[in-house]
Amino acid sequence: MRSVIDIVDLSTEELDDLIKVARDIIANPDKYAHVCDRKKLATLFFEPSTRTRLSFEAAMYELGGHVISVPDAGSSSASKGESVSDTARVVSCYADIIAMRHPKEGAAFVAASKATVPVINAGDGGHCHPTQTLADLLTIELEKNRLGNLTVGFCGDLKFGRTVHSLINALSRYEGNKFVLISPEELKLPSYVKKDAIKSKGIPYEQTTNLEEAMPKLDILYMTRVQRERFFNEEDYLRLKDSYILTPEKLRKAKPDLAILHPLPRVNEISVAVDDDPRACYFKQVENGKYMRMALILKLLKEAGTL
Amino acid sequence: MNIDSIHNGVVIDHITAGHCFDLYEMLHLGELDYPVALIKNVESKKMGRKDIIKVDADIELNLDVIGYAEPGATVNIIKDEKLVEKKVLELPEKLTNVIKCKNPRCITSTEQELPHIFKLTDRENKVYRCAYCETKAQEN
Predict the structure, then answer these.
(1) pLDDT at residue A48, as a whole number
(2) What mean pLDDT do residues A129-158 have?
(3) How far apart are CA B78 and CA A164, in angstroms?
(4) Strand ranges, E, within chain A
(5) Quick check: is A1 in a domain?
(6) DSSP letters for A36-79
């Protein structure tokens, strides 16, 4: 049974196909309004989530399907000691497809290995969150009309940010991209990500601690939050925290067609004054996530022979 | 020093000098009721010095454990005092229940029945990553 746990589970051709379907969904929503009639998506969220859960549920409703869910999966069967494997098997009896979020890394992989319906990883701890990357890719495609020949800046916490690792992996498959990695020393991109996704493919990249200096060359700026708890000492955090807050002043030297992305939730790393700038794409990104989840649900249900 | 030749069993040759006891532990050879010989610091043309383990019993050893711990070791299968098979081991592509994931956020830390599976992601640098959470295996 085909499931999607990590963005690497999808080939470049499949990413392109998903984007094509998502574009078609945006252009012709009525065409898709009943394609999933009587099909059921189970959303199993073992930890709190607002956006991702609502996005999956909205996606299934817009395809004409139904959603079955539990108010808080973490306090139901799991609290009685049921394993992820058993939960996946049981839920497979009720639903045609499962979207699962779990605090433990690898939980979706375990669920997918036992479920008899497709499983979509909606986030497994700090490990993978492939549908966020799909949202990021569609946003870039819609803003730039391409996924290659772009200079993409990643700013903030590049060490622990799973969305950053995943997007770098996806964009590294398209020709002509360059990466600018903007972070404090403490939060630099891990060497294995750099080696696997950037160096081994000969992709040009630069590392800097200065967002303003990097700004003029960027076509895309992917912002992430620098969290206090990631620093070894408070002094370093206080020294650096404001450097990675995006403000209208810092955008003065940016290209007029820059696209600013952020996986959200935002705390204070993008000033609200930036929200009205036409280059701010992070709320469009949320909507795009829904379209890509619709495209992915369709693809997996078709491959499973359910549609 | 004389070690009797074995009739039916296994000889693990070309073990890095000084490592035979680690391998003995990893293979749980201490739990066997058969004769087992650990030979340390034997002269070797190829390695200078090497260790050898001889097990005088027709048993199947976990070759993944040997390949992981001692890539390059040779496993000789002896039947009726004759060498019937010789395998030069390489790092296995996949390890199941050979090493454990130490990431406290990994699903294997809470679901005890799950097998600990690691995949070889960098042969040159002997890097294994957990199949569940992709955390790099720590050398034991």
Answers:
(1) 83
(2) 97
(3) 54
(4) 40-45, 66-69, 97-102, 119-124, 151-155, 178-182, 205-208, 220-223, 259-261
(5) no
(6) TTT-EEEEEESS--SHHHHHHHHHHHHTT-EEEE-TTGGGTGGG
Q: Check B107 against A106: CB less than 8 A apart.
A: yes
CATH number at residue A253: 3.40.50.1370
Mutate to test the interface with B, among A87, A104, A166 (most CBs of B within 10 A): A104
Contact of A179 with A198, CB cutoff 8 Å:
yes
A230 within some domain? yes
- Point out which residues pair with A151 in neighbouring strands: A178
One domain for residues A77 and A193: no
Whether B106 and A109 lie within 8 Å, measured CB to CB: no
Fold category of B9-88 in CATH:
Alpha-Beta Plaits (3.30.70)
CA-nearest of A24, A41, A34, A102 to A300 is A41
Residue A2 falls inside a structural domain:
no
Same domain, A296 and A278: no
Structure-token match 């930890």, residue found: A47
* Residue carrying the six token digits 């949202």: A135
Torsion angles phi and psi, residue A58, rounded to 5 = -65, -40
The mean pLDDT value of chain B amounts to 93
> Which residue in chain A is spatially nearest to B136 when comparing CA positions?
A192
- Average predicted confidence (pLDDT) for chain A: 94
